[in-house]
Amino acid sequence: MKKLIILLSLLSVACSNDDNNINNCNFLFNAGVNLEVNTNFPLYSQLQFPGNGVYVPNQGNNGVWLWRLNSSTLYAWDAADPSHVPSACSTLDESGTGDIVVCGCEDANQYSLATGLGLDGNTEPCTLVPYRVDDLGNGQYLVSN
Asked: How far apart are the first and last CA of the chain?
């Protein structure tokens, strides 16, 4: 019986720590996104080629990052650092290195547009907030949530 109590106590502590990590990632609003993307237009033409990204302002919390992973996969992520309340510094900007975007706040959190995961010294368990991408054909996509 004593072993069962100890086991249940450890389990409850572990679960409560996970809840704290999840709560630390709830800074972003469920902002409506309804964006039509046509890669045949100059604004989005970079997305015709794998390994390229485009930042689109005035969508989501602090804009939307679009990332062409390969010829068949286009990702859309909220451009606000999920580890911060949306602010001027929490918008994710290009780092100048591949698919990596960086937060302008003091902690300079980095994320991968190819995976949505935090990188190099990002101490929060948060990942980028994804948006749905529907392929409409002929280089046209609908990004929504």
From this structure: 49
